[in-house]
């Protein structure tokens, strides 16, 4: 995408793999954060390999604020 404010909420029991890239902006996933220019964050939940349900999020934006929270 070009410009966005992405907020994703995922239940804790779901395994999550996040590959997020933004040219300008910030990425925050479960307490890990990257901000500034040319950000990329690759994050995998501890339960990803053994979870019954799994989600893979591939997020790529030019300018964005990405926030993925586990509840």
N/C terminus separation: 26 Å
Number of helical regions? 0
Strand order of the largest sheet: 1-4-2-3
What fraction of the residues are assigned to beta strands by DSSP? Answer: over 45%
Query: Structural class, from helix and strand content?
Result: mainly beta
Task: Give a quick account of the main beta sheet: strands, pairing sense, barrel closure.
Answer: 4 strands, mixed
Shape, please? elongated
Kindly provide the radius of gyration, computed on alpha-carbon positions and rounded to a whole number of angstroms: 12 Å
Order of helices and strands: EEEE
**Low-confidence parts:** none
Helix content: under 10%
Count of strand segments: 4
Residue-averaged pLDDT: 93
Description of the molecule:
The protein is elongated and about 35 Å long. The chain is mainly β and 71 residues long. It is built from no helices and 4 strands. Helices cover 0% and strands 75% of the residues.
Characteristic key phrases:
about 70 residues, four-stranded mixed beta sheet, mainly beta
Question: What's this model, at a glance?
Answer:
This protein is an all-beta fold. The protein is 0% helix and 75% strand.
